[in-house]
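Write out this protein's structure.
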Amino acid sequence: MADEKLVRADRPPARGKAAPGRRLSLELIVTETLALIDERGIAEASMRTVGERLGVRAMTLYRYIHNQEELFDAVVERIVNELNDDPQVPFPASDAGWRPYLEGLAGGVRRYAITHPHAFPLVATRPPSAPWVNPPLRSLRWIESVLTTLSDGGFTDDQVLFTYRSFNSFLLGHLLLETSARVLNDPQPGDGSFQRGDRSGGRDPVDPTDPVPASLSPTRTSAQREDRAETVDGSSRATDDLQVGNSYPTIHRLRAGLTEDRFDAEFAAGLTVVLDRIAAQL
């Protein structure tokens, strides 16, 4: 598809706007969309805002991408493909065996997740292109690598499938929790629990930064969580939400630990447990 010279937008350039003279391409569109999500959250990445960031009209983007859904799929592919350039991820698997390979791969997936915490929900929730493509390892190249490494390591087909599913499930669960915590520490207006616009058809205007009911609000930071866990006059504020008193004594006793960030240690320990379980199946 032919490149198109970027034109100036009527409004001031957004932060990170492409430099004048750069030529529009699908690669540039995806790069700037991911940068926008990293800075402002997923809900801020509309075709209009991406076009403004690039200095072109939204309709111009449709020469390169069919719709926003396809654009988000391309963003997911870009994020996952960061594994290809990660020197700590072995490809193909080294002679050290399946376990060091999975440890290195898990570390690579975690690195791209915490590099793009605001975008990671796309990796976790976008519909897969095939039923065997499971998040967060959404690349056919890497799925094939995992399955081949395990098969070459003496795994039966059933053991390969058990390992693939267990490995992916651990990564997905842990990284959703960890990236959510990071988003809470860096709340942006386009993060998932913010509502956008008026959902009432004009009858009941709302503040676009109001949190969606029953959602986790990015305005609830880790500092606020710690503050709520402090003891005041011998009783925790958190227990006010739990009907005050002795109804939940274990939560009350462990409240300080429940607010601590131990993701590094918990990721390593959890991965060890999963790999030990896999080894026991062999």
